[in-house]
From TrEMBL:
One of its GO terms (molecular function) is ATP binding. This is Peptide/nickel transport system ATP-binding protein. Belongs to the ABC transporter superfamily. InterPro entries: AAA+_ATPase, ABC_Ni/Peptide_Import, ABC_transporter-like_ATP-bd, ABC_transporter-like_CS, Oligopep_ABC_C, P-loop_NTPase. It is a peripheral membrane protein. Residues 33-282 form the ABC transporter domain. GO terms for biological process: peptide transport. GO terms for cellular component: plasma membrane. The keyword rRNA processing does not apply. Keywords: ATP-binding, Cell membrane, Membrane, Nucleotide-binding, Transport. The keyword Transport applies. It is found in: Cell membrane.
Amino acid sequence: MGEILDSHGDNRLDVHVGLTLDDVRPPSDEEILRVEDLTVEFPTDDGVVHAVRGVSYVLHQREVLGIVGESGSGKSVSSMAVMGLLPRTARISGRIFFRGEDVLALPQRRRRDLRGKKIAMVFQDPMTALNPVFTIGDQLAEAVLAHELMPRKQALGRAREMLDLVGIPQAEARLRAYPHEFSGGMRQRAMIAMAVINNPDVIIADEPTTALDVTVQAQILEKLIEVKDAVNAAIVLITHDLGVIAGMAHKVLVMYAGKPVEVADTDAIFYSPRMPYTAGLLGSMPSTDTTGHRLRPIKGAPPSLINLPSGCPFSPRCPLADEECVTREPDLALTDALDHRAACHHWPKMKAVEDPTVFFRAESEIQG
Ligand SMILES: Nc1ncnc2c1ncn2[C@@H]1O[C@H](COP(=O)(O)OP(=O)(O)O)[C@@H](O)[C@H]1O
Ligand code: SF4
Ligand SMILES: [Mg+2]
């Protein structure tokens, strides 16, 4: 069986180059998911971890929301709360509505029903989600049969269609393959197939391409966009890398220390950020223009979520921080544009400069 399964690299699997959200149907105004003031805490021996501190968003049909932030900012925990996959020790408050239904108030059985069928997840590492001892076909069929009564043969038929949909050639033969016989990119495609096999309304993709090389990353993201349109699903796309969001998300929620610190349309995030942290993230992206600006990581590290500093949690790293910043934490508030919110006392200073990443450049760079 090796011939079909082993020899092909990912590069020859996909013919779509440069697909973006502009090429697919726009979101409708049908509200699918609403998260209101979600808070998650973990009591531990060292103290209470304030992992998520008031996340709110609304997701419409076919809409893609990007959630961006450094590692440890609460991106995964907030999504696991939506999926109902947090450990029992987690203290959750706030509200989560799926198609108007209050998810946190549902009985366990109904929540299990939602999970995997209506809200599906694509994880960073497919090997943690795929079982090494079962074939891809068996696992895809199982995902169907967990939610729907049908003959196994029919479920396998659906599995084959899904492998086709995600661009895995010779799907029939590959149903009989085991996860380790797939390359990294193919495994991630199989995960996407598994996520969409029950026609979900929401796909949560948590760093779905982080482990893959750049070419394969682009192919997988394009496939995700194509697939969401095919099944009419909305996507929550989680990443630590702002570059992944460009062209792929309609709107973006930037997280820092468990809190949303900027929420806006993707263009506004890239071209007119109002929160210094977002500008710092932009400045740390590899430059695609010819100015030769290098990758410039934001100095310092995010604060402990057990002992948060007083005031703005970004203040120890923020080039604009002043007295007010260290005494009072800013609310996420409207800025100068409709639907553009930022948690910063000094957002007008960001508006006043042409290139907000300038605050994060060294003195020498600015003069030179
Ligand atoms: N089960 C848990 N118990 C205690 N702390 C946790 C648990 N799960 C996550 N955390 C903490 O919550 C914070 C947010 O984590 P996470 O959402 O995974 O970050 P991200 O996905 O943004 O990298 C981190 O500080 C992490 O250590
Ligand atoms: S509130 Fe102050 S410290 Fe926080 S991001 Fe704004 S300027 Fe920086
Ligand atoms: Mg994570």
